[in-house]
Amino acid sequence: MNSARSLFRSLVVAAGACALAAVIHAAGTLTPVGSPQAPIQIRDHQVSIVINNGFARTEVQQVFFNPNPQDLEAVYAFPIPKSASLSEVTIWAGERELHGEVMPKDKAQQVYEEEKSAGNDAGLASQQGYQNFEFRVSPVRAQSETRLRLVYYQPLTIDTGIGRYVYPLEDGGTDEAGASFWTANSQVEGQLSISLELKSAAPVTDVRVPGFEAAAAIEKLDAGHYRMRLDRTSARLDQDFVFYYRLADNQPGSIELIPYRADPSKPGTFMMIVTPGVDLQPLTQGADYVYVLDVSGSMQGKLSTLARGVARALGEMKPGDRFRIVTFNNNAREVVPWTAATPEAVQRAIGVVQGLTPDGSTNLYDGIAAGLRGLDADRATSLVLVTDGVTNTGVVDSKAFATLLRRQDLRFFGFLLGNNANWPLMQVAAEASGGFYAGVSNADDILGQILLAKSKITYEAMHDAQLKITGVRVTETTGDYPGKLYRGQQLVVFGRYETAGPARVALTARITGEDKVYATDFTFPETATDHPEVERLWAMSLVEQVQTARDMGELVPAEADNVVRDLGVAYSIVNEQTSMVVLTDERFAQRGIERRNQQRVATERQAQAVRAQQPTPNHRVDAQQPAFSGQAPRVGGGGGGGGALDPLTVLLIAAGVLGPIAGARASKKTQD
Are 368 and 304 in contact (CB under 8 A)? Predict the structure, then answer.
């Protein structure tokens, strides 16, 4: 217990000292380079966050002010949080209130440009690649204020007893084209306020806000209920807000179900969180570790953090271990050959890492390929990649990365440094290898993240892992074929269920060559209206699964993009193929645009108001029949049945998407 608490503090307390200043630009209003106009000002920036067990709701309100004598279009951007479902955008322009509806991207752009040209109040929210959400507001009247409100949802997981939420503000320093075109104003002229409410069914013993310990006011209301508030005047939007919470020790493994089904005549949606309480044993034989380190120019400002983390990880190695270090920029090179982890060799390697300097472009493929050379089939091998993932030299096709990593049987662990990092490519790498990756904010401590991963590297893993639900027909699941599950890792599965009734969930896996089954019985409810947001989270998870299959070459790009577009429109989420156009009610009516999101938002707000007055719910469904007999690891230590298919399922099958995905996952399981 003491070692766990010590590691947790090393993770969060040191993080404030690791915030990086060498960025191109942070979140803020954008002005073209060389523009004669003064930049749009941010008068106030208010953030309200609610973390309720399996997911977080983030609401942002900003007041813009146009200091110029003419009306202007405001452009605001901020880094995209991983798996974020942008769901609401509201604009207040004087007395007029505008709301957002999701449309196909090209159509939304056309509507916005037409409204802007006509002089009407309008807004547009779009996803710019994997890097930024961009918001356009027109016009911001001369010498006047305009208020923007946005809401997004995202799933959160617990890793070895630690939960983590990031509100991204700092740019990752990877968008060179954007940096050359835009000048960003990240200064908040008035008040920057961040409030957070944490509601956890499991007891929480510690929370941290790295970098803001002295300024944040934290209140403990109950064992799993905390409130935090942070207020700053004349602050800049150039440092991420990171919130950590640590669950109490000795928590059991569990299976939790968060369902939503408002109409018994239609399919329901569910989010299932599996926390294995499996006693995975430490690997006692000597192991091999390959560190592949990005030293390209985009790592400027991040490299010292990388060096500290890797140096500490090297210092934790055992005498029977071996390691080698590969660096890459324009090309790859081995800077430390295979070396036994003696104290003297480790110190020499630490000196090499600390002397690295960033320069050049990013040949990520060459770096991984070099790291995979010379592996010993008789020894367990882990490849640890630390990068921002922005590959711009050599092989850049994601399918080639998948092919490369499928050739080797090893443990792949990726660490993505900074916002705007190329997480879609890292997702492909993890999927192809049965690996694991984590994003690391510039306000994080890569040391803590690498140490968290150490228990995954140095302990047994669950192989050929899959989750299956029987008794009730489930469809369109995501996350149920992980392949490998590592120590402390949660499994989050989304899906649809056709009918209410008793069901059985089983997690099957192979541990040290022995087949294991962890199962329990539960009931899908006839109606469940507490968490309508689960529909958006499921749709976003399915979008990401389709995109990853496309990037791995398992789906035809045009067909995958059509499914991504249709999911975005049907469930009102902004993604690669959709945007949210923001208009007055009158203009929506005059244009004949269906108000899907208006209805969905009303349902979500009503449920949120009810939940706010209730105690924290416990969603565990295996309390009477535990699926796992042990405790969840600590730091330091599709189904059967029948039923009709809903229109979206028919659409996915007709597009040829669900079949290839299921086939690819089954093939991957066979190969693992």
Answer: no
Q: Are 435 and 411 in contact (CB under 8 A)?
A: yes
Strand partners, 528: 261
CA distance 620 to 622: 6
* Closest listed residue to residue 495, CA positions, set 247, 261, 189, 230: 261
Q: How far apart (Å, rounded) are the C-alpha atoms in residues 53 and 523? A: 20
Give 3-state DSSP helix, strand, coil % of the chain, rounded to 5: 25, 35, 35
User: Could you give the dihedral angle defined by the CA atoms of residues 115, 119, 123 and 124, in that order, rounded to the nearest 10 degrees?
Assistant: 50
560: helix, strand or coil: helix
Domain ranges in the chain? 254-280+462-580+622-671, 288-457
CB of 667 within 8 A of CB of 549? Answer: no
Integer Cα distance of 514 and 529 in angstroms: 41
pLDDT at 622 over 60: yes
Question: Which token pair is 637?
Answer: 């230590």
The three-point CA angle 232-418-171 to 5° equals 55
What is the DSSP track for 334-393? EEEEEEE--HHHHHHHHHHHHT----S---HHHHHHHHHTT--TTS-EEEEEEE-----S
> How many angstroms separate the CA atoms of 20 and 525, rounded?
48
DSSP letter at 613 equals T
Sign of CA pseudo-dihedral 453, 157, 131, 544: positive
The secondary structure of residue 186, as a DSSP letter, is: -
DSSP bridge partners of 426: none
Q: How far is CA 363 from CA 179, 272, 333, 360, in A?
A: 21, 38, 11, 9
Question: What is the DSSP track for 559-603?
Answer: HHHHHHHHHHHHHT---TTEEEEEE-HHHHHHHT---HHHHHHHH
Which H, E and C letters describe 510-523, residue by residue?
A: EECCEEEEEEEEEE
The pTM of the full predicted model, rounded to 2 decimals, is 0.85
The per-residue pLDDT for 171 is 59
CB 98 within 8 A of CB 582: yes
Strand-strand pairing, 436-440 and 411-417: parallel
- Do the bridges between strand 288-294 and strand 322-328 make them parallel or antiparallel, or are there none, so unpaired? parallel
The total number of residues shown for the chain amounts to 672
The one-letter code for the residue type at 321 is D
pLDDT, tens digit, for every residue of 606-619? 999 999 998 888 99
Q: Are 347 and 389 in contact (CB under 8 A)?
A: no
Average pLDDT over the chain, rounded to an integer:
83
**In this structure, what are the phi and psi dihedrals at residue 68, rounded to the nearest 5 degrees?**
-90, 160
Superfamily designation of domain 288-457: von Willebrand factor, type A domain (3.40.50.410)
- Summarize pLDDT for 356-411 with one digit per residue, the tens: 999 999 999 999 999 999 888 888 888 989 887 778 888 988 899 999 998 888 88
C-alpha distance from residue 471 to each of 168, 640, 659 (Å): 42, 6, 22
> What are 541's strand-pairing partners?
none
| Contact between residue 329 and residue 297 where contact means Cβ atoms under 8 Å apart | yes
Residue 471: count other Cβ atoms within 10 Å of its Cβ. 18
Residue 648 in this model has a pLDDT that exceeds 90? no
H or E element, residue 488: none
Query: How large a percentage of the chain has pLDDT more than 90?
Result: 51
Cross-strand partners of 524: 501
Residue 528 has a CB neighbour count (10 Å cut-off) of 19
